[in-house]
Amino acid sequence: MAGAPDAGWSEFQCKAAGVVQLLDLNNSEIIAICSGIVALCALAVSVWQGHLMRKHNQISSRPHIEIIFDRNDDIKINLKNGGFGPALITKATAKLGDIEIILKKENDYLRLINSLASPPHNLEFSCYWLERNTVISAGDELNLLTIHGADNHQGIRRIMLRALDEIEVIVEYRCLYERPYLALYCPNTHHAD
Fold first, then answer.
1. The pTM is what?
2. 102 in the same domain as 155
3. What is the rounded distance in angstroms from the CA atom of residue 188 to the CA atom of residue 193?
4. How far apart are CA 48 and CA 56, in angstroms?
5. Rounded to an integer, what distance in angstroms lies between the CA atom of residue 80 and that of residue 185?
6. Does 139 share its domain with 79?
7. How many CB atoms lie within 10 A of CB 160?
8. DSSP-derived secondary structure for the chain
9. C-beta of residue 153 within 8 angstroms of C-beta of residue 121
10. Which domain holds residue 153?
């Protein structure tokens, strides 16, 4: 019998030779099949590597928004991106008791200030109009609200600072990969007078 296994072969070599004889494959066909198997393995490895690279990029470009209250001369609410990628701000909300105010335009900030210092006073302020997908680059800071000269009004600063101890600020944002995140400023957890 032509191509019979040699008596010195291992059991695996005999089985492999038997399979080749059964399939009636010549050397070039065996090489082609092995090349196909190697190519499929290389494809699987490159797909897995692409998946891991995308996951790494998502982690390494993640933004991290921190809400900072500055209680020095002027009262300020700042948003700082301490992450590695840009943050796309989708929504900012302030809650004071039962009052919830979505901060977009000047009137929204005015409502917030009047809620902090009731009865309302004519305080000068500046604010940032948040539009959908406002971007804060990595390492940058955005001044959301500044109340100017609150210390010039008798007792107003003390009232406002007391109210700031009860305010919650919630900022919803996304990364470049559209993953949603949330930054939260809770009362009595972040300030030091």
1. 0.69
2. yes
3. 11
4. 12
5. 13
6. yes
7. 21
8. -TTPPPTTS-HHHHHHHHHHHHHT--HHHHHHHHHHHHHHHHHHHHHHHHHHHHHHHHHHT---EEEEEE-SSSEEEEEEE-SSS-EEEEEEEEEETTEEEE--SHHHHHHHHHHHSSSP---EEEE----TTEEE-TT-EEEEEEEETGGGSTTHHHHHHHHHTTEEEEEEEE-TT--EEEEEE-TTSS---
9. yes
10. 65-185
The verdict on 38 and 82 lying in the same domain is no
* Residue labelled with tokens 């010549």: 26
Segment 12-38, tens digit of pLDDT? 776 666 665 656 778 888 899 899 999
pLDDT digits (tens, 9 = 90+) for 49-63: 999 998 888 888 899
Q: Name the domain count of the chain.
A: 2
With beta carbons less than 8 A apart as the criterion, state whether 92 and 117 touch: no
Nearest to 181, CA basis, from 83, 52, 45 = 83
